Amino acid sequence: MDTDVRRDVVPFRQAVRAWFGISLQTFGGPAGQIAVMQRTLVDERRWIGQQRFNHALNYCMLLPGPEAQQLAIYVGWLLNGTRGGLVAGTLFVLPGMLALLALSAVYVLWQDTTVVTALFAGIAPAVLAIVAQAVIRVAKRSLTHPVFVAIAGAAFVALALFGVPFPVVIAVAALIGWSAYRLAPHVFVSGNGHGGDGGAAPLIPDDALHHARPSGRSAGKILAVGLAAWWLPVAAVALFTGTGSVFTTQGLFFSGTALVTFGGAYAVTRPSAPHSPASPPPSSVRSTSPSTRSSPGPSPGLGGRSTCSSRSRGR
After folding, report:
1. Which strand (E) or helix (H) includes residue 143?
2. 3 state SS of 48
3. Single pTM value for the model
4. Which of 10, 127, 223, 292 is the most buried (most CB within 10 A)?
5. For 62-71, 164-173, 205-214, 239-248, which range has the lowest pLDDT when averaged over its residues?
């Protein structure tokens, strides 16, 4: 692939250290994770421009699956090619997986104690504070015009009060944005291309385009790497635990869920909420949300709770 033979934008070891540091700070679900990447990659290190970051985030929101992890993979690919994307995506979920494993063990062993109950109850308001602070930080950089504020407010009312389906909200917002650009292009022009803060130019500026020409070979290689990273872990679990194990069932279930969960982690619990042998009941999903968001990494990892609950019931 052409993008792999180019020189790294930043030294690979430096990028690995940066992604590991980001992975340890990504608490509070996608809002907190995006805010951490915004601060680290855009504001502090100046590795990517503000507009490029926002455009990538908007694109990832349209894709099924966790948008924050997809954004990390994309930025990692821009910085260091395919290996950069794989490292960024892997480190993004690894600390959260280990933390969730520890929380699950604590819940199974001491779920009936007052201390653990109070601990998980106290996490909820802290999570809300983290998410609110992160949303405000991202909004200050993204909602740079009253038109954008109006669109965001209308989308919130449509989703929260009227229950409008997420794809409809996105389609209407895109139509409004397209119309606004045709009628008033100046609305979409920002200060200096980097949030208007007057800082140093980013290594990947907003106006930089991909130099690699599209090709079937390049697309096939990317597809092969993605499918391998997706299905090899599921195949390994099926090989070591059996095709009928709860781990394999959950792997297949959440692989299918990832294909239909548009809107990021905050929308992922709706498709996975109906009770099935591979998914927890809705009450379990609600009670697990604070604990999953208190661990770093993507928040909709509810499979561990389902497994732990089934084990505790079987003891």
Report:
1. none
2. strand
3. 0.74
4. 292
5. 205-214
